[in-house]
Design brief:
The protein is of the alpha+beta class. The protein has 15 helices and twelve strands. It has one domain: Cytochrome P450 (Cytochrome p450), CATH 1.10.630.10. Helix 9 crosses helix 10, helix 9 packs across helix 11 and helix 12 packs across helix 15. The protein is globular and about 60 Å long. The N and C termini lie far apart (63 Å). One of its GO terms (biological process) is cholesterol catabolic process. InterPro entries: Cyt_P450, Cyt_P450_B, Cyt_P450_CS, Cyt_P450_sf.
Length: 413
Amino acid sequence: MSTLTTAVPYTDELAWPEGMRPFQTVDLETQKDPFAHYAWMREHAPVLRTRANGKDVWFISRYDDVRAALRAPKVFSSTVVDPIPLVFLTLFDPPEHNRLRQVVASSFTPKAVAVFEDSVRAYAAEYLDELLAAGGGDVVDGFALRITMATISSLLGVPATDFDQMKYWSDDVSSYFGQVARQAPPTEGAEEGAEEFFAYLLGNIERARRDDNGSVGAHIGRLLQDGVLTEREAKHFCAFLFVAGHETTTVLLANAFREFSENPGLLERIRNTPTDAKAFVEEMARYRGTVQRLSRKTVQDAEVAGVTIPAGDVVILLPGSANRDHNKFDNGDVFDIDRDTSGHLGFGHGIHSCLGQHLARLEGAVGVELIAKKVAAVTARPDNPIQFVTGGNLANTGPSYFPVDLVPVGDAS
């Protein structure tokens, strides 16, 4: 029997444990480490009712419920904002979503991304050697971000000389995209920066097409020339690939250093058995998945865990919580690379499963394998603590700044 909406209490009306403040739609502190809240919600409020801008927002936290919603786009629509402000795959439903995804799907198959392994390995070795020579440093800016920026830029056909400029744009433009998607007022100068970025991308895909350099950028340039994509679609789609292609994997690699600092025995294990790097990446995607929330809007009344969510309401799916559900993963709050991770939602599920998941897995496995090969110890710096991705919407959760001391293999006492 379902619960009437009017009978469902709001988050601040619930008896949260002492010391745990009510879970809110936007909460900078909780975003840093939301997992204790998730555990309580799965047990006591699997469909949590909150308010934002005077409207109800519902959070779904259990594995079976999140997975079912991801498989039901006709009920849980990805078109939360209307009109859709950006040509980002995550904002579209079929059939438009399918049309856009098919444009580049062949460029992100396991076979297609395998050609990048040598370059990813070269980037990783170069950047890690620099950190080791310095005795450590910020592994986000000095390693994780540099690898993912270089890789996605190469994939889009961006010249190596422009990598630094792409890095400069990444933070501001990503923030702007999030503000637009949430219909929040952009920060000063953000819109101008985004337009500058779009103009650059348009010029880049046209250059890549003329050079016929075999990149995804060149492919999109040909589709633009042939009228398959409009100019707006082409430049926005490139921006989506750029943002999605580096943000999530950057955090995954940063979280790898975090896990090695907390569980140093894993370094030796992967050093001795490099193939375990792939299992490490899958478990990290489950345990500390970068994308913690996925926004949907109900097309019709939807019943979830005995609660009826009215049509037209915003629903936030929490794959980061689902991935720790003990009913799916035994001891889900424990990092264990020996576990069966099949079915985890770290790369999404259903029609919106991550387009670049095979590239992310490649970058993650190469990076983790190389870290274990070259690094004997990772030590966090208590006097210069880790900082986390902010934004308060739980979209991405993980380190934005993580300074560590690194001991090279062979130098450990």
